[in-house]
Amino acid sequence: MKSRRLLVVSLAAIVGIGAVVSSCAPAENSDVITLGLTLEPVNLDISGTAGQAIPQVLLDNVYEGLVRVDDDGSIVPALASDYIVSDDGLTYDFTLREATFHNGESLTVDDVVWSLERVLDDKSTVVLPTQLAQFARVAEVASTADNQVRLTLTERDNDLLYSLTQRGGVIFKKGTTDFANTANGTGPFTLAQWDKGSSITLERYADYWGRRADTASVVFRYFADAAALSNALLAGDIDVMTTVQSPESLSAYDSRDDLRVQSGTTNCEVTLGMNNSRAPFNDVRVRTAVRQALDKDALIEAAWAGYGTRIGSFVPPTDEWYEDLTDVAPYDPAASRDLLAEAGVATGTEVSLDVPPIAYATNSSEFIAAALGEVGLDVTITPVTWEEWLDRVFTKADYDLTIVCHIERNDMAIYANPDYYFRFDNAEYQGFIAAAASSPTATERSDNLRKAARLLTEQSASDWLWLIPNLQVAKRDVAGVPRNSVGDSYFAARLERV
Amino acid sequence: MRRLGTALAAVLFSTIVIFVLLRALPGDVATTRLGTDATPQALADLRREYGFDRPLIAQYFDWLIDIVRGDLGRSLLSGASVKDDVVSRLDVTLPLITASTIVSIMIAAAIGRRTALRRDHGSGVLTMSLIQLGLAIPPFVLAIGLIFLFAVQFKVLPAGGFPVSGWGSFSEALRSLILPTVALAAAQTAMLTRFARSSSLEFVASDAFRTARAVGRPRNDALLTAQRLVLSPVLTVASLQVATLITGAVVIESVFALPGLGSMLVRDIANRDYPKVQSVLFVVVLVVFALRTIVDLANDRLDPRRVA
Q1: What angle do CA A194, A473, A488 make, to 5 degrees?
Q2: What does pLDDT average to over chain A?
Q3: What's the pLDDT score for residue A15?
Q4: Which residues of chain B make contact with A398, given a CB cutoff of 8 A?
Q5: Engineered SS bond to A328: which of A255, A457, B81, B269, CB 3.0-4.6 Å?
Q6: In the CATH scheme, what architecture does the domain A65-169 have?
Q7: Do B35 and A24 touch (CB under 8 A)?
Q8: Could you say which residues of chain A have pLDDT below 50?
């Protein structure tokens, strides 16, 4: 009898489940827009914990700075209604607008001074070292009137306004202590709920000082697994897939008439790093030979389904000082072989290519190994974890070749640091970068950076494979999806269902 | 008593293994928090703040004393209590593992018995072939197939996720666990069926079965006597498989984007949140050992031959 009872119980369970399945299709709520992302924040401490995940959800949505960077890259007022920069570039005067924090308290100059003083304290252990470095030239922040704040600099800093738009420039309520678990900002959304391991829900802030969010609620849903993210979109569980991990899968979305693929720009330069301090790559001829062995168009086709822009140096086309340098070390295997012979590199010389576990790197490693094999370099592909990459390649520079995307904006300065893992040590380049940072005019700054970019490619400090496009897939009825990825934030206030 | 002693020794040993293995991984939570651009000085300061500069042996014993006192510590990144985190994640993982265990034991016992009786029939052969298939397909492949069919094509079940309000939205929560349960139970069922079948076969060939048939009891009825005998090895294997199920849950929770214990563990390991990871692993080890001990005791009662 028992077996029959078991069967009956199983059947009942199945019928019960079936009833649940059919009875409750999820209700449509047009005022909620759900975004699918891959990296969830480890905590909410926007100024004290690294990684893009935290500012992606909180910056400009929950927290704001004095200024904000627009989707097209221009800097626009935020908590400051207005600002004046002195001619010598050493004084910045900001006029605050009337705004309230999500807990109801008003924004005061004291909050601004308190928040910015946090990033000026160079001994602080609660603020990220990168933030401290960005504000190293600011000597003092002080209130000059009830709604006026003045920043005084020791020397000109052309990146200061941009730095103020990012996580270091966020304005907190004075005296805030718990940054890791709460977020009391002034932005268009309040932090409604963080369901750890799953999603963060933002809700429209009714008392926002500016144009209120177009949608009542935006949910940032996190998927550790890229296939799960894609499935959620195909099943209609999310409205926007904010990142496309494998461009070759885009055709699956293109064929659906309820979805659209959107492509914008990023600052993410896929870089073939060469160890400039280690033979054979300490010879500029060898580095140039590597670049001439690679057919970039074919590589972009093979590794990134043809999406992606060729770049000849470490500058994206959206930067003012961009110049087309793709012809400096053009694809020419014969010239590549000649250069290697000239440098005395024997055919069959063994080099190692350390490949971190990310699609752009794994997808291009075989192509690069084969192409370099054609000109006589024997490449061993070594897959590495991110932890190993950070430790051995990035920190200790114990590597020959590696592939990584560099995403920071205005990041040309990394090549001016001889200890950076490229180990590129060039006094002339360092001079250009220093001159650019203290140039009195934007034109002069651009000139210096343009010269630096040209020198970088002439020296073949690295090879730059392609610029990653900002690919997203959204339901056709969702508008306001930010096109470009120019800062650390994912601005959600203009999202709406139409 | 002896059984308990062995279990305790094993748990103690596992704490050492957990502690040492985690320290052997490259990178630490200071790099996770401060990022790739952090200066060595800043990293050193933070490590001192975390107490990582103290001798490993002292760190180990501090942890051991804490967990013996029932204090699982706090996450270094969020400051949240590990106990609270584990409890909230069990909302997903506990039902998932329990349901797939129950489903797989029930199906395995039923199919095992049937195929043993019809071992020469076409249907029995077909069933066993299907079972082989179940063993051969990796759970994540099955999971993706299920999602494609039920979520993308027919749209009757969600592709993944768990309601924000948890079991407060009961039917939604239940719906979101159906596909993961099936995916997790499949391989389990296949394995358990083979055990159920072989012990059923053993019984069919036994004197007890022949005698029962000889005195005129119907075949099915006679085999029911074997129910307990069949269930006993199945339960033992099932308890051994709990550890496998937990690792299986790691994969399944990722594919279905479920906020469970497995997906939390993967993330915390990636972030090098050692104090948290070691305490969570300790809890898992404890549960596995506890279950084995319980099943051992249950077997003593189930198997008439073992009743003193």
Answers
A1: 50
A2: 90
A3: 43
A4: none
A5: A457
A6: Alpha-Beta Complex (3.90)
A7: no
A8: 1-29
Is the pLDDT score of B164 beyond 90? no
Residues B110 and B245 occupy one common structural domain: yes
C-alpha A210: how far from chain center: 26
The DSSP letter of residue A48 is: T
Q: Point out the residue among B35, B46, B264 whose CB comes nearest to the CB of A130.
A: B35
Are A484 and A266 in contact by the 8 Å Cβ rule? The answer is: yes
Closest CA–CA distance from residue B268 to any residue of chain A (Å): 9
Residue B79 belongs to some domain of the structure: no
Query: Has residue B76 been placed in a domain?
Result: no
pLDDT value at residue A32: 94
With an 8 Å Cβ cutoff, is A201 touching chain B? yes
**Are residues B97 and B34 located together in one domain of the fold?**
no
**Please, which residues have CB within 8 angstroms of residue A405's CB and are 6 or more apart in sequence?**
A268, A269, A270, A271, A358, A360, A468
ipTM score of the complex?
0.82
- Domain of B298 in residue numbering reads as 89-306
Whether B39 has its CB under 8 Å from any CB of chain A: the answer is yes
The percent of residues above 90 in pLDDT, for chain A, comes to: 71
Residue whose pair of structure tokens reads 């804490």 in the numeric block: B66
* Fold held by A269-467: Dipeptide-binding Protein; domain 3 (3.10.105)
Tell me how many domains chain B contains: 2
Q: Is A398 on the interface with B (CB under 8 A)?
A: no
CATH node for A189-265+470-497: 3.40.190.10
Residues B228 and B276 in one domain: yes
Q: Where does A45-147 show beta strands of DSSP type E?
A: 67-69, 75-77, 80-85, 91-96, 138-145
pLDDT tens digits for B34-76?
Answer: 877 777 888 888 888 888 889 999 999 999 999 999 999 999 9
Amino acid letter, B218? P
**Do B282 and B142 share a domain, yes or no?**
yes
Q: Domain limits of chain A?
A: 65-169, 189-265+470-497, 269-467
Q: Are residues B62 and B98 in the same domain?
A: no
Which pLDDT score is estimated for A21?
A: 45
What's at A143, amino acid-wise?
S
Biggest CA pair distance of chain B: 85
Smallest CA–CA distance, residue B63 to chain A, in Å, is 22
Instruction: Render A424-447 in DSSP notation, one character per residue.
Output: ---HHHHHHHHHHHT-SSHHHHHH
